[in-house]
Write the structure tokens for this entry.
Amino acid sequence: MTRRPKIKDIAERLGVSPATVSRALADTGLVAEPTLTRIREAASALDYRPNVSARNLRTRRSMAVLLVVRDIGNPFYLDVVKGVEAAARAAGYAVLMGNAENDPGRESEYFDMLRDGHADGMILMTGSLPSTPEFRRRLSPNLPVVVALEMIEDVDFPHVQIDNDTAARQAIAHLVGLGHARIAHVSGPVPEVMSIRRRDGYRAAMHEAGLSIPEGYEQRGDYLLQSGRDACRRLMALPVPPTAIFLANDEMAFGAIHELRRMGRDVPGDVSVVGFDDLYLSEAFSPPLTTVAQPRAEIGRRAMGMLLDMFGGGSAPKEPVILPTTLKVRGTTAAPKMS
């Protein structure tokens, strides 16, 4: 019977290290062209497939990683999951989904699964951790955990994220450039760090433009559609309502637009709306939503790549890995009506 090809066979064929082959096949983003293409072509030519069973026995690993999100029903996570799964599958790992549902108790249970060996590592996409003394006492910085997209300041886990402050500033600069002066903001849950950074970016951009933030122009949401509707209703009830609203995610932006239409307001004729995330529905929305696009699939691939490096004995980066965002200008923003 023909011997099953191994990573070292690909390495010897190309004259590179086995570690380089492993990173390339895991799509970690750490192997540059043309080496990346040469490795993939050699793996295909040799019909290489990871031998999961043998590796499990050799390493005593579960060959699974936990991907824990705050709400599995949010379509925001789909591209992240695709990025994680692609990198994990190429390295012979399975991905186990964990739905925290904003419940600290459930999140603590997922950490117990990690400690008990049900998974070799965790990619965490929640904005906070349980605050109980027992959980904090058992929380070790040596746990193989990578925080993706979200931001948790009081832990030493490596992060893959975006510059939320700068992204928010770009959104406000777009509205200011259209001529808006009355710009409101609906944040995510405060005091979560990501929500605060987007809010701070809004405040800084307003200050830089010489614009005031009237009382009531900052509303707090929870990233869910209904909170966007509720916040929009409060904003439109103000004595001088805004002509533009920047919301901290697309789902709340959808809620705000639905509420504006219910009140007979046109978007963007009466009120401009900007979201954040660029969900797959955002471009298909009517009108298409102006929003900040995050490289979610790439964030997932990079987070999984970090875990794989940690599994191999590598050290996690001390500073967060920051990936770029793009403002997608579409149909929900326009110049304000002349008053």
Remarks:
- The longest strand covers residues 64-69.
